[in-house]
Amino acid sequence: MSGRFDIDAPLPCTGKMLAAPVAIGTAPRLRTEFELDRGHGKVVEAILLLSALGVVEAWLNGAAVNDDLLAPGWTSYEWRVRYTVNDVTGLMSEGANAIALQLGDGWYATPLFVPPHARYGERPAGFAELHIRFSDGHSQIVATNGDWSVGASPIARSNIYDGQSIDARLSGADWLQPGFTAEGWLSPEVVAFDTGKFDRQFGPSVQRIERLAPVRLWTSPSGKLLVDFGQNLVGWLSVRVRGAAGDTLTIRHAEVLENEELGVRPLRSARATDIYTLGGEEDLFEPTLVFHGFRYAEIDGWPGGIEALARDGGVDAVVIGSDMKRTGWFRCSNDDLNRLHDNVVWSTRGNFVSVPTDCPQRDERLGWTGDIAVFAPTAAFLFDVGDFLREWLRDVGVEQAHRDGLVPWVVPDILKYFDDRPLFRMVDTTAIWSDAVVWVPRAIWDAYGDKRVLAETFDAQVAHVNRAWSQLSSRGVWEGRFQFGDWLDPEAPPENPLAAKADAGVVATISLYRSLRFVAEAAAILGRDEAAGFAGKAEVLRRCFHDAYVEGGRIESDCTTVYAMAIVFGILDAADIAVAGERLAVLARASGHRISTGFAGTPYICEALTRTGHLDDAYAMLLETGCPSWLYPVRMGATTIWERWDSMLADGSINPGQMTSFNHYALGAIADWMHRTIGGIAPLSAVDGRYSVAPQPGGGLTWAETAWATRQGLLRVRWDMGAAGFRVELTVPAGASVELALPGRAAEQLAAGFHTRAVPAA
């Protein structure tokens, strides 16, 4: 190798993937020592490439090579394995050097999803390749191979669902340094691995985000020591403790309490339990090879009990997540809405851990495509999710490419290994879930003007809509096949979340119409010839939809979801929109403005009411506090978004359904409406730096502040409503422009700078 190491070039792949040769009973460690080639001058560059089947932590000469957690993350291992590029020049020694790796099961070797589970492999394996460049241009490569050593570690268990076990008596840092006597260590097994699967990571790594101290310690009725961190979060406990060698400390995690005890039933088979064996001195435990979703912890075996913990401390919560920059903020005069928005932020952070998951706590934590399909616009406002979602979309594409255009329900797709179960034998192209391959890139384009994501996914988008088009019935609509439809309709029984009011064919056909339009628009943006063809298909589908499902403005199944989706997705004739909007408002009022929509309809109902002149009804729905509503969980003390409107019942008991999560971002998609309608900020053309500011006050709110870190800079809006009227202040960043539309005023164009406008009271 001559010249600087090219991080964009194909991976040289000198190294091998290494695993422990036998079941050694612990999470394996790998290490090697080496001397620098002599006579070539100083080291001017040292780049360490890292990867794993599972997760890996790495040290060079005793120093951690990065701050990454759970690296290299979860991908579709059958076809794509990420590697990271780490500059370790400053860690090199002129004498002996040592590279050390700690492996964990991660998503690769943890049995995933519900029992009897499925997993990619039995054992984790690690890969490292160090490229050293000297001042005279000479290069040296040190890579994982059969000459490395593998040994046991203090970590007896590193199961994503069940937790981590650490024996401090076996801890020590000697193995990280040169000169370590690897007594009892073995030769590793070289694992058969196709290095063509390697793909350099470009999305954000998982990192520590912040630490939270306990807000309450107490003893439960059964005598358990309980800790409350005041916030449902994703991560683990950092424990500093001193006790007798060999004593054990057991920590269980849960999101909620029930009957004043830890509420673990929603975890299903996940144990979410960390077990620590004390070393006899002051020990510091952090289970960095796993993660938990929790607000509460139950601690058994703390030396000195609750009195000692209260007096001396020693427990904090470490919040982790993919390292995404926060970009969107919202505050208003209603504290419940502020808490709702905070809950959306926390659920986004907690479920964006390597992949966009449904939930972070139970025996699931899968990349359900339907959840991110409806939530992507909200996520793209709150955080810079561009590279995070672009990288996940690579896995969508590779899964789809091996399934004849089918976008699976989860990505990475572990469900394909559950073909012994009737439901998963039915996996096929499904509205909203499979539409993620179209809707997520569109959300990234709208938010950031990033044409790359449209170009990278265009063929996958085309494959999806063509496959769905091939499944249309003789009436020309998408019906007669399994669909999730309006999943988790609040009126569906807990044991059957598929039993929605909305006709599944109606939901599917409206969704496909939206995807066809999006693909046509993507083709036009990319200058491709397919634009007219897909626009024509969308129009054919629209006509068939009307023939099959619409009569006099009424849509088959006559419920809030079908009207909300039809209005927002634009499938209705102009003459029917007003009728549909009025019917939607009537249904919303008939429900007492409580939610009557599931995953499909909830993100769009307030937008549909607003577009059709029913802003007061949209605000009434947002501000309703009875169950089901967005603010019912807030009033029940929620600090994240729940999976079900009634995940916790009014009496404080947990919903009896087997699928009950207290950290599930999908229903938080209402924040997109809050940003656009209350806050007033929306993109017009992010690629050109053009934005809309059109706040629509209501609901008794007296002020709101919203800010968005656009690609051009921070766009900030504040409005106040008082006796004198409506006043707006906005700051437009350099390079951007705004179309300002205030109630009762014609729209005006504003350039960069600070602006104020006022609308006097009538």
Polypeptide structure, described:
A hairpin with a 2-residue loop joins strand 28 (550-551) and strand 29 (554-555). This protein has four domains: 17-156 and 166-203, Sandwich (Jelly Rolls), CATH 2.60.120; 208-322, Galactose-binding domain-like (Jelly Rolls, Sandwich); 328-679, Glycosyltransferase (Alpha/alpha barrel); 681-760, Sandwich (Maltose phosphorylase, domain 3). 25% of the residues lie in helices and 28% in strands. The model has no long low-confidence stretch (mean pLDDT 96). The chain is an alpha+beta fold and 762 residues long. The longest helix is centred in the C-terminal third of the chain and has 22 residues, at 504-525. 52% of the residues are buried.
What would you say about this model in short?
The chain has 762 residues and is of the alpha+beta class.
The domain count comes to: 4
Q: Under the CATH scheme, which class of the largest domain?
A: Mainly Alpha
What fold name stands as the CATH topology of the largest domain? Answer: Glycosyltransferase
Largest sheet: 10 strands, mixed
Helix count, DSSP H or I runs of 4 or more residues: 16
What is the CA-atom radius of gyration, in angstroms?
27 Å
The CATH level-2 architecture of the largest domain is identified as: Alpha/alpha barrel
Q: How many strands appear in the DSSP assignment?
A: 37
